[in-house]
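Support request from a user on the community tier.

User writes: "When I paste my structure tokens into the form, the page sometimes reloads and wipes my input. The last time it worked, I copied everything first. Here is what I submitted, just in case something in the input itself triggers the reload:"
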């Protein structure tokens, strides 16, 4: 039975659904039919998240058994790259240490987005789906610690999910830098074919293949939503400042636009 040899691990609301859709177009790539199996995070557990709509989404849809996970890859034929995409994997501190026990040698794709924009996009996503009870982003941020304590799923960790440096460090420590390919949401937006070709090359499949990038999936609608308040943006930029500086060192690239 085939098992994944690569994982798209996040970040949530950084374009992982688009990446999943584009990857599955490649004739040498097989993606699990279910995006966000969450298996490596929730295996052997009965998910019991307590936020609005959690029972109908993450609690019901996550795969927690080895047989259920194996079934996701029963359709593999001759594809060289076999993968799945679960953004929870970047954020969950336990997952990196489990990878080589369950999917030995798997490579890792990471797409990162400006953490403030990622947080606001997650808020808009939850509002779009009727799951976010508050209409004000600042109020939702203030309520975040209480929601975490109450067991709401990671979607509502609006600020918490944006501290990428520690998340990436865990992956580097667990599997090594050579098995992790990091790119940015801005690169995916500006040149999706170029960004995907980098992923194809990393996965060892034909990097001259051009996916159809005209259709965008899972875009959080801004219809009826006010733009992100400048004061809230500035406060969050300050919250992330030290983490972004640390991330710049890890990636050896300029992320100064994230601090403006």
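"...and here is what came back when it finally went through:"
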């Amino acid at each position: 039975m085939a098992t994944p040899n690569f994982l798209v691990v996040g970040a949530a609301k950084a374009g992982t659904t688009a990446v999943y859709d584009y990857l599955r177009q490649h004739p040498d790539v097989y993606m699990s039919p279910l995006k966000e199996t969450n298996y490596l995070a929730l295996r052997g557990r009965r998910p019991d998240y307590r936020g609005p709509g959690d029972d109908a989404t993450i609690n019901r849809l996550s795969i927690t058994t080895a047989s259920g996970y194996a079934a996701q890859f029963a359709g593999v034929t001759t594809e060289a790259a076999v993968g799945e995409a679960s953004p929870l994997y970047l954020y969950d501190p336990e997952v990196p240490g489990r990878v080589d026990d369950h999917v030995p040698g798997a490579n890792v794709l990471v797409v990162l987005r400006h953490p403030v924009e990622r947080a606001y996009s997650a808020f808009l996503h939850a509002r779009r789906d009727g799951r976010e009870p508050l209409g004000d982003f600042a109020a939702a941020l203030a309520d975040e610690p209480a929601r975490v304590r109450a067991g709401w799923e990671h979607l509502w960790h609006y600020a918490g999910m944006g501290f990428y440096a520690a998340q990436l460090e865990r992956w580097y420590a667990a599997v090594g830098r050579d098995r992790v390919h990091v790119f940015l949401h801005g690169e995916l937006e500006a040149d999706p074919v170029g960004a995907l070709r980098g992923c194809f090359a990393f996965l060892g499949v034909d990097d001259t293949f051009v996916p159809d990038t005209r259709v965008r999936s899972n875009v959080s609608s801004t219809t009826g939503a006010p733009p992100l308040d400048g004061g809230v943006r500035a406060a969050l930029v300050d919250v992330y400042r030290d983490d972004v500086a640390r991330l710049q060192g890890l990636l050896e690239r300029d992320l100064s636009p994230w601090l403006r």
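Agent notes: The reload is a front-end session timeout and is unrelated to the input. Residues 45 and 64 are 6 Å apart (CA to CA). The chain has one domain: 6-259. Escalated to web team.
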